[in-house]
Design brief:
elongated; 8 helices; 30% helix; two-stranded antiparallel sheet; alpha+beta
Amino acid sequence: AGAFVNDRISLAAINGPEQVVLSGEVAAIEALRVQLESQGIASIRLHTSHAFHSAMLDGIKESFRKEWEGIQFNSVNIPFVSNITGEFITASAVSADYWVRHMREAVRFSDGLQTILSQGKGLVFVEVGPGNSLISLLKQQKAQTAPVAMNLVRSVKETADDHGYFTGRIGELWAKGVAIDWNGYYKDQQRRKISLPTYSFEPVKYPTEVDPIKNYLQAGLNLGLTENKELKDW
């Protein structure tokens, strides 16, 4: 990506080992698209309102900083991965300077995924927003085993019922060993408990129309057969 970065094109995001986002002026991006096509490099033009994480944002950095200076920061209690460094966040997040950098510098999403993957086995990744674009980026990462990942909200292209889609994903998470707060899930609903049968379910079929005598004979039961007549003739 460095070969395409200049004073009009900025590196906006590193999404995967072989996928980056470049940002800049419309004319510069169009010229870049032509250049990439001539070199046989696949590209997609993103539909976005602004050239985020590019030099085009330099003009608002100071006004953006003033907005953050009016916010009271608290210490970080829940660890998360920084998109600036790709590492776990430090006390640097408790400052206006950090969030100004967050707006301007490249998103190191790929590095952040590697940081999480290095934490050990048994990880479950959940995409909270609609669709599975982040899960697709996760699958591009090099890992010894494919990580367990699922999204909770359908994409705009899918027509499934939202509640059923979400409930199904919650069930999959539970099946993967994730503890679900069911009391919280059903908090605003009225539910009634029912008792399960007190006997164990046995894999024995009982058809509705049967010949009880034949069944007894097939079971090998001695029901006192006579010498000349079978039980069915009694």
